[in-house]
Every structure is written in C-alpha cells, then in structure tokens.
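User: Predict the complex with flavin mononucleotide.
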Amino acid sequence: MSPAAPVKILVLYDSFTGNVEQMARLVADGAREVAGVEVRLRKIDGAGELCALPEDVLWADGLAVGSPTNMGLLSWKMKRFWDDDMRPHWMKIDGKIGCAFSSAGGWGGGMELACQSVLTLLVNFGFLVFGVTDYASRDLTLHYGAVSAKAPADEAAKGACRLLGHRLAAWTAVCIHGVAGAHPGLTLAERRPPHA
Ligand SMILES: Cc1cc2nc3c(=O)[nH]c(=O)nc-3n(C[C@H](O)[C@H](O)[C@H](O)COP(=O)(O)O)c2cc1C
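Assistant: Here is the predicted structure with flavin mononucleotide placed in the model:
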C-alpha cells in the first residue's frame, strides 16, 4: 500500500575522498525501492543542488546520516552542520526517523563508534533512531548502521547500504505516514520464522 503523501527521505552525508558518497548513493537506491518515496541526496559543503541545507532536514520525514569515521567519531564537518546550521531548529524537529552509516580505513577502525556518535546527535535532536537486526550477508550486519571498510566494494557491503535505505523508508512509511503494510517486521516474519 502506498502512502497518500510522499515519504520524504534525506540521505545526508559528508565525504572527503568519496567512500561515504558511494555508500550514500546506495542508501538512496535502497530507499527508492519502497513505494511512494521521494529521496534527496545532500552533501555537507556540496556544490550546487547537492549542498546540504537546514531546509533539507526540515523537509525530511526520515534521515540517513553518513560520515567518514574520523578518530572513531563522526567528521567535524558533519558535527559543525548540526552544531551551527541546525542549532536554531533544536526542539522544533523532534520525531523524525533517523539512522547512520560510516566508512573507515579498515575493519576495526571504529565505524560502529562513528555510527553511534551520529545516532547520539540525532537522539539529541529528538529523532527516533534504529539499527537493523538482519544480516546483510553471512558475515556482515548493520546493527548500528551500515558500515564499510573504504568504499563499499563487494555485494555484501553494497547490500548493507541498500538495506539501510530500504529499512529507513519502510519505518518512515509506517511511523510517520501510518502505512501499516510497509512494516518491515511483517516482511521479516514472512521471510524467516522467529529464531530460525
Ligand atoms: C582526520 C581523519 C581521521 C580518520 N580516522 C579514522 C579512524 O579513526 N579509523 C579508521 O579506520 N579510519 C580513519 N580515517 C580514514 C577514513 O575514515 C576513511 O578513509 C574513509 O573511508 C574516508 O571516507 P570518505 O572517502 O568518504 O572521506 C580517518 C581519516 C581522516 C582524514
């Protein structure tokens, strides 16, 4: 069932050398798989129409926020966006759906910590944040958000990004637009019996 109004999804990211950007495009592709979704892809300090503005956050019902892992945390540019640009909107934008993704130099480099720092920031703004319980592949999960060592190179890492976007759009359709049929738990139950 499609929602009456578009489900508005913002994929907001920072990227210095392009790895998180590749993740962001895949997250956006995943979100577009859900019926009735409109996606904006926006970069911190991006050029032209790609440039992230507070208005994009205000517009969105659900956000995926991606950052390079920097010293185990989100990047300073992403932090600055929320500290400076979004601060006037604090206490006015509660209740949006949020999730995180990050690329680090290598596995164990702290990408889940970086995701956690993004989630902490979103919680501070009153957003409802989530992780994904499914496995993207035999050895890859995204419990705290989608993660990648450098660019998402193999199908598992790419699939994790798409799954995050898809799940964001589905949760946003359910929680913000009341489209019960989009509930991912129902889909999961059909796909796999509990504790199988
Ligand atoms: C200032 C700085 C700090 C970094 N800190 C980490 C780190 O803590 N752990 C890690 O594995 N990689 C770290 N890296 C590497 C980046 O996370 C990695 O290259 C990432 O893929 C870059 O994403 P981007 O191409 O979207 O900029 C750091 C890079 C920079 C520039």
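Residues 15-21, 68-72, 103-106, 109-110, 150 surround flavin mononucleotide (CB under 6 Å).
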